[in-house]
């Protein structure tokens, strides 16, 4: 995608899972990419694996801490000269429990990881995009931002919030040259899902394989799960010329689970 070449992209939580797939896709398309992650060794190893040291920068840090995000975003601008795209990717469920068993701290943790992180990074990125009158913000939400799943009330609430935040910010900045959209993946078998999936399955009274087949695949129109690469390709579209005409949208990559 020639239009992506030369763009400067920041991806939160870009060292694993969907985030790593998005980083890989933008680097392959010729962008300059800065990403963060909590684990220094794995983040640096991934950056080296990409084989583009002049266009890739990893900074250790948390997407839930304003100072870490500021260092990432401002550092990307200092290093590469501008900011074209922000991908708010970091997220996940830290507590797969029925609501009667959920602690207040677990509730707060899920909202901060998924929703507050998106607010913080967006606010910081707009400090660079609005003066330039150009930018694309892509929030990685979830199909759970369009529906509800037992034992995931905090996560579902946070992702519904991401979708609402996407619509509101899009309305604020659309006439200033910045688009804001959300991608809503269904279940993708990333390493993070493989780590936490069995706990969710147990809370639903089934094995992980049974949950994949009977809960997730059975809900799709295709009978299949989606992939990291499919999410990354959509992110490229939203960051390119076609994406200039799309804003305030919540685009599903879920095999047809949520048809709106």
Globular, elongated, flat, extended or rod-shaped: what is the shape? globular
Helical content stands at 40-55%
Strand order of the largest sheet: 3-2-1-4-5-6-7
Largest beta sheet, briefly? 7 strands, parallel
CATH architecture of the largest domain: 3-Layer(aba) Sandwich
- The DSSP helix count reads 8
| CATH class wording of the largest domain | Alpha Beta
Summarize the structure.
With 260 residues, this protein is α/β, with parallel strands linked by helices. Helix content is 47%, strand content 14%. The chain has a seven-stranded parallel beta sheet, with helices on both faces.
Indicate the topology:
Blueprint: E1 8-11, H1 17-28, E2 32-37, H2 40-49, E3 56-60, H3 66-80, E4 85-88, H4 104-132, E5 135-140, H5 153-173, E6 178-185, H6 191-203, H7 208-216, H8 228-239, E7 250-253
Parallel strand pairs: 1-2, 1-4, 2-3, 4-5, 5-6, 6-7
Can you characterise this structure?
The protein is α/β, with parallel strands linked by helices and 260 residues long. The protein has 2 domains: 8-186 and 227-253, NAD(P)-binding Rossmann-like Domain (Rossmann fold); 191-225, no CATH class. Helices cover 47% and strands 14% of the residues. It contains 8 helices and 7 strands. It has a 7-stranded parallel β-sheet with strand order 3-2-1-4-5-6-7, with helices on both faces. Helix 4 (104-132) runs parallel beside helix 5 (153-173). The longest helix has 29 residues, at 104-132. It is globular. The two termini are 28 Å apart.
């Amino acid at each position: 995608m020639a239009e992506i070449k030369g763009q400067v992209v920041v991806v939160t939580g870009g060292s694993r899972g969907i985030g790593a797939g998005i980083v890989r896709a933008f680097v392959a398309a010729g962008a300059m990419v800065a990403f963060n992650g909590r684990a220094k060794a794995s983040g640096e190893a991934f950056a080296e694996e990409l084989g583009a040291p002049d266009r890739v920068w990893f900074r250790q840090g948390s997407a839930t801490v304003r100072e870490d995000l500021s260092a990432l975003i401002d550092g990307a601008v200092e290093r590469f000269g501008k900011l074209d795209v922000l991908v708010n990717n970091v997220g996940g469920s830290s507590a797969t429990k029925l609501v009667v068993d959920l602690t207040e701290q677990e509730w707060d943790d899920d909202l901060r990881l998924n929703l507050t992180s998106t607010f913080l990074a967006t606010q910081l990125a707009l400090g660079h995009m609005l003066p330039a009158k150009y930018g694309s913000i892509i929030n990685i939400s979830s199909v759970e931002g369009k529906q509800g799943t037992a034992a995931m009330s905090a996560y579902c609430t946070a992702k519904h919030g991401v979708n609402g935040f996407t619509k509101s910010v899009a309305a604020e900045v659309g006439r200033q040259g910045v688009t804001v959209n959300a991608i809503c993946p269904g279940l993708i078998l990333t390493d993070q899902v493989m780590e936490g999936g069995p706990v969710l399955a147990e809370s639903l009274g089934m094995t992980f394989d049974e949950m994949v087949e009977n809960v997730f695949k059975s809900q799709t129109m295709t009978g299949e799960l989606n992939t990291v690469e499919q999410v990354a390709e959509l992110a490229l579209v939203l960051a390119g010329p076609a994406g200039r005409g799309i804003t305030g949208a919540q685009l599903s990559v879920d095999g047809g689970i949520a048809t709106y």
